[in-house]
Amino acid sequence: MTGGDVPVRVALRTTDMEEARAFCRKVYYEPLRIDPVGDPDRFDFSADVVELGPITVGEVAYGTDIRVAIGALETAYHVLVPLTGVLRSRHRGMVVLADPTRAAVYRPTGDIELDWPGTCRMLSVKVERGALERELDAALDQRLVSPMPLGASFDLVDGPGRTWVALVRLLLAELRAPEGLATQPRMAARWRDMVVSGLALTVEHPYGEEPAGLQGPYRPRTVKRALDVMHAEPWRPYTTRELAAVAGVGVRVLQDAFRQHVGMSPMTYLRRLRLDNVHAELSRADPGLTSVSDIAYRWGFTHLGRFAGAYRERFGVPPSATLRDQP
């Protein structure tokens, strides 16, 4: 890593798997495996990454479905934000389905497995362990445990998550520009600090509702609890009453909270989450080995007629067209 105020940009576009693996190990983590599970002829790796002191920010895509296995990060916390597509992530016994509405968060301990579809272009943010822990330690009036027991994901639709990811994307765009303001060392250092402090404000942790002095528009814990169980197992036949019980409130309270903080009812959100996962799986499935009904049932849709109508309304085509059009 170079000096903390001097951004260093590294980029690669290649169809060579070994070259892509070497790049990712050098820029991110050494104990890393990348294996294609889709058509290897469609492998088209692209990465545009900027290192700025304790943070490494970039956009990464593979062009075909891959599986990534990473050993314990040890020295960093990491956030993955799909800009397109849906990422299936397993870390410390938790399954997270990340998409443009929800980020996945990784602690320094515990192996990571990622099912990364070729349709998924990722915003990747690595933050050195000490930098994030110092930031939270400065904001909290109590001793922290290291590594911090952060939540496995956070919301990007509204609140601090939306602001943080917009900040990261703007920083990356500015650092790519040859004469952007963020390429100036003093401005780069300030922006770098904003990314770290913004992440400390955004991630969930057990040290109180919010860091002292960093109050922000957090979603209520009732909403977070319901979102967490839906993202962990979206195929389960939840009812609004069951989600309200998980959240610890009445049905009407949960519905009102979702409309205020998510912009839709719990069941509408769950249906959209399931549809997005069906779409992602249909987009990479072999029509000779599976069917629309198999995938729909797997993601919790039991009435195929209503499912097909909802799918067409969301994606503009019937589900059979998505499956049929795959190479």
From TrEMBL:
Residues 224-325 form the HTH araC/xylS-type domain. It holds the Pfam family AraC_binding_2. InterPro entries: AraC-bd_2 (IPR035418), AraC_XylS_family_regulators (IPR050204), Homeodomain-like_sf (IPR009057), HTH_AraC (IPR018060), HTH_AraC-typ_CS (IPR018062). GO terms for molecular function: DNA-binding transcription factor activity; sequence-specific DNA binding. Keywords: DNA-binding, Transcription, Transcription regulation. Signal peptide: none annotated. The keyword Transferase does not apply. PANTHER family: HTH-TYPE DNA-BINDING TRANSCRIPTIONAL ACTIVATOR EUTR (PTHR46796:SF12), HTH-TYPE TRANSCRIPTIONAL ACTIVATOR RHAS-RELATED (PTHR46796). This is AraC-like DNA-binding protein. It comes from Actinoplanes octamycinicus. The lineage of its organism: Bacteria, Bacillati, Actinomycetota, Actinomycetes, Micromonosporales.
